[in-house]
Design goal:
This is Angiopoietin like 8. α1 packs antiparallel against α2 and α2 packs antiparallel against α3. The chain has 198 residues and is an all-alpha fold. Helix content is 92%, strand content 0%.
Length: 198
């Protein structure tokens, strides 16, 4: 834009000089006034064009600053969205791991419950054997029969202890499963909150 204004001024100055040279050789004073007015008008036009150029340049600079600020805001928003996605991905991975652990605990609890059932049936069989043996030994304590009775009684006591240990193990597994389910609920709530639009 400044180059265009300079070219225009140079062209007008050259034209004015040529016209002055032509008019000095016997032209009328009225034509010289017109030429002066023309030159003055060209000068005003160049000043106006220069003002328009400066105003346009200021607007372009301001627009560039606004675009730069807008780009920075977009960059920050993109970074926050990326961090939110990473956090949601980590939560999903944690949730998956906890669900796998919970499935493992459920399988262990089922296996333990099955073992307890088998132990309870074994205890029932032992009780029946002991009752039959007691009936056979009413008042007669022979050596071999008494040893067999004592062995069965010790075996029953051992079975009782195993059932007691397994029952405690099942109770601990239930507590672990409850704690695991609580953590799963918390993670699901966090995932739900993360998925809500800001």
């Amino acid at each position: 834009m400044p180059v265009l204004v300079l070219c225009l001024l140079c062209a007008l100055a050259t034209t004015a000089q040529l016209a002055l040279v032509g008019f000095t050789s016997g032209s009328e004073p009225a034509q010289q006034e017109e030429l002066t007015l023309l030159f003055h008008g060209a000068l005003q036009l160049s000043q106006a064009l220069n003002g328009v150029y400066k105003a346009t340049e200021a607007q372009l600079t301001k627009a560039g600053d606004s675009l730069s600020l807008y780009g920075q805001v977009l960059g920050l928003l993109g970074k926050e969205v990326s961090q939110g996605q990473d956090a949601a991905q980590e939560l999903r991975a944690s949730l998956l791991e906890m669900q796998i652990e919970e499935d493992g605990l459920k399988l262990q609890a089922e296996a333990t419950a099955q073992a307890l059932g088998e132990m309870a049936r074994g205890q029932q069989v032992l009780r029946e054997k002991m009752k039959r043996l007691e009936a056979q030994l009413k008042g007669v304590w022979l050596g071999h029969a008494r040893q067999e009775f004592e062995a069965l009684k010790a075996h029953a006591d051992e079975q009782n202890h195993i059932v007691w240990v397994l029952t405690g193990h099942v109770q601990r597994q239930k507590q672990e499963m409850m704690a695991q389910q609580q953590r799963l609920r918390q993670i699901q709530e966090r995932l739900h909150m993360a998925a809500l639009p800001a």
